Amino acid sequence: MKKGDHLFLVDGSGYIFRAYHALPPLTRKSDGLPVGAVSGFCNMLWKLLREARDTSVRDTPTHFAVIFDYSSHTFRKEIYPEYKANRSAPPEDLIPQFGLIRQATKAFNLPCIEKDGYEADDLIATYARQAEAAGAEVTIISSDKDLMQLVTPMVTMYDSMKDKQIRIPDVIEKWGVPPEKMIDLQAMTGDSTDNVPGIPGIGPKTAAQLLEEFGDLDTLLARAGEIKQQKRRENIIQYAEQARISRQLVTLKTDTPVDVGIEDFSLEPQNGPKLVAFLKAMEFNALTRRAAEATGVEASEIEPANVPIQAVAEAHGPDLDIASGDDLPNPPKPAASAAPNGAKPAFGNVEGTPAGLVKARTDQALAAKIDRSSYATIRDVAALQVWIDEAMASGVIAFDTETTSADPMQTEVVGLSLATRPGRAAYIPINHVSGDGDLLGGGLVEHQIPEREVFRMLKPLLEDASVLKIAHSMKYEWLVMHRYGIDLHPLDDTMLISYVLDAGEGSHSMDSLCDRWLGHKPLAHKELIGSGKSSVTFDKVSIERATEYAAEDADVTLQLWRLLKPRLVADGLMSVYERLERPLIPVLARMEERGISVDRQILSRLSGDLAQSAAAIEEDIYRLAGEKINIGSPKQMGDILFGKMGLPGGSKTKTGQWSTSAQLLEDLAAEGHELPRKIVDWRQLTKLKSTYTDALPGYINPRTKRVHTSYAMAATSTGRLSSSEPNLQNIPVRTSEGRKIRTAFIAEPGNKLISADYSQIELRVLAHVAEIPQLTQAFADGIDIHAMTASEMFGVPVKDMPSEVRRRAKAINFGIIYGISAFGLANQLSIPREEAGQYIRTYFDRFPGIKDYMEATKAFARQHGYVETIFGRRAHYPEIRSSNPTHRAFNERAAINAPIQGSAADIIRRAMVRMEPALNEAKLSARMLLQVHDELIFETADEEVEATIPVIRHVMENAAMPAVSLSVPLHVDARAAHNWDEAH
DNA sequence: GTCCGACCGTA
DNA sequence: TTACGGTCGGACG
């Protein structure tokens, strides 16, 4: 770079936000992808590059670069942790545009510059000074006052939206000081958007006046005593240090260690086809035409580019200090290339809004026919290559594996299907065997590509960052593929998309979604493999039948995705999906894959003990009952207790049977009856034996010698996970007998289990959402929350409080979370309903905010049909307006509970997503194994335990930040031990 | 064989 | 009074 050259530096990140707010919203016609800021950006670049030479006020650039913020974690955070801490997450429809704007920059053949740890402003400052030193002119395309300190006779700013140059006189006119004093001015005034503190009471006018008088900030601070106005003088003296810190924050770094030098910014000619392909994909028709004309390209001959929405740390805004690293989803393909069955997309009918797109897609999907006979079977390498090429070009594929077992840790792949666009799908048979296994073991069927070859060929596709893989229940596919050495990514999951959109509106299984949205019943798995004793594994199914079934699944998945994905934007739920669901897929998959070690001997010994104890009690029961009945049959037991023996207090279940619940039997036992006590004890022992000590060993995987649970991501209405086969979220803990089960969950030799659990997370969430001052204060002070409640309610001092008083307050606190009723509380506390009702009234008197919160939540649910967590996750209650009072009341209680339970669930999900990067960052080898709603279990080497616990605690306690700044602190207890009982 | 209710383990 | 999943008995086919 030399004298006479002219460097243009575009503040890309600044532009994005400004354009987003200044320009009218715009969405891509075919799928509703928000592109307003992208459009403004492209038009601006076009103008700068094409029209600069015609404008007298600007020279033609010889060098050009677009600069972006990389992430919110910069050196300024080290100086001042609160820097930019008050920034909220970027708007929903801006998020996908961060990545798109970077791709636009590249499509314009311009350098796209960003650097971890630095803001765009620092890079701009560094490049501007370098160019200036080389004698070149610089134009900074931005109107941000933070950059005005850079203006010199050689460095000009240009506000592209107002088409206005900003030179030294313009800065003086606007701020009252020349550019070189802007730093001191900003240090004094501070900046509320970036959370730069400054000096209270000093605005730009005062600051300029003071700088005029004293010359610079240091002189001012040194001679502050001379200031006449008392308040101003006090503030300047008191906040001198704050001003100095502020100065550090606003001073742009002109010596950023850059990776790309200014020499590399030399302006290159446009790549016409590349630019047109991008603009076409964005559906910017006017600009496409102009770009095609100017570059001599025939627009109609150019295919729209495959434009993936890539991971951009900035896209997470200030939200993620620890970037997830996962790619954001590819956008839906333009309808022109993806209309089902070759039908013309209904452009004329599609409104330019996400909602319009959803409507069009829904109608389209219902009209489309699914033709199972059209699917292909891939039997040789050449055919497979054709499909792989097509998939690569398409950029989006739906994907499904057929396997021998529902357990991804045990299963073998039988075949694999993929769909590249609606109606176009194929099946790759791999391990089908001849049906009759009796004769000579039923070998592999002919004309199947060898397994190794299939995976060798598919691996590049399945791991290609530019090809989005869609599945229904992707965690299963991920696990299966991982066993074959494939790191499946990037991912989308139609089950999870449906879950985010419609939690509470019924099942998210593919069959029901297909029926609901496509009006089609796909072939049932059972129809192929049969059921029960006569069922076979999928490898015995004929390849013809398997093709119809498997390819249909892929086809349906793709069609569901096209339909459901745009709804995430339309309904404002993209960030729930992107932050809480999609990144959790590989996290949970790895947890399931790791499993946990369970000691068979301990369980076996416990089982023997339980059997003995139960047998002893059985003898007593038969004696007391006077006959040998099935103790495990509530029906028979009820008849004995309330029929034959005529005990009092019997009540009936809804089917007319005598109720024999533990609570009821306990009450009878308390009145001195012997038999009910025995039954309760017997039930406890046999429950522990059958559900835990006897069942768990059967789940030890013979290959890994560990137990691998399965987490359902879309099973609950509130956002919680559920665990099954085995359920490791209900391992006993309340009784000493039950806790022994936990001693069987152990760490490998030389390792420890770490258990870290949130303390009172749901009550803390309640304190936050309902804004209850006493609760917030109590959590801030770290005092016993139930004792505080009791003290408030009953006027008892916390000190020496009777345990019964605290117990009742605790039950009420839980009751509140559950959407309390007098009936339920009375039951829980075994007190009269009137008394329970009085408690509730007292509670609402003492904490009126709770009552308000409950009423507001009910009203919201009635109006919208759903409620929301603090992160925007929705739980639907379609029957909240039921005319049946009992039914309606049930829905209301659930609706009150869901935001509380769900917000807590969201918080731990966020912690889980961030945990692995945080541990890696700290060079720790701890593995996250289990989640139990408010608890995470890890396994790690003995010598790393001490270093690991603080990292875990930090991630968990800060998991809500910065998307939500809770008004109460989160507290995590963590302990390490060789087994789960001692760690908990 | 499959389904449902009762019961009970967890948060 | 919220949210789950597993086991059992018993009724149904």
Automatic annotation (TrEMBL):
Residues 375-569 form the 3'-5' exonuclease domain. It comes from the Bacteria. Residues 395-570 form the Exonuclease domain. It catalyses: DNA(n) + a 2'-deoxyribonucleoside 5'-triphosphate = DNA(n+1) + diphosphate. Residues 5-268 form the 5'-3' exonuclease domain. Residues 738-944 form the DNA-directed DNA polymerase family A palm domain. The keyword Hydrolase applies. PROSITE patterns: DNA_POLYMERASE_A. Residues 335-346 have a biased composition (Low complexity). GO terms for biological process: DNA-templated DNA replication; double-strand break repair. Residues 319-350 are annotated as: Disordered. Its EC number is 2.7.7.7. GO terms for molecular function: 3'-5' exonuclease activity; 5'-3' exonuclease activity; DNA binding; DNA-directed DNA polymerase activity. It holds the Pfam family 5_3_exonuc_N. InterPro entries: 3'-5'_exonuclease_dom, 5-3_exonucl_a-hlix_arch_N, 5-3_exonuclease, 5-3_exonuclease_C_sf, DNA-dir_DNA_pol_A_CS, DNA-dir_DNA_pol_A_palm_dom, DNA/RNA_pol_sf, DNA_polI_H3TH. It is an enzyme of class 2 (transferase). Coiled coil: none annotated. Belongs to the DNA polymerase type-A family. Single-chain monomer with multiple functions. In addition to polymerase activity, this DNA polymerase exhibits 3'-5' and 5'-3' exonuclease activity. This is DNA polymerase I.
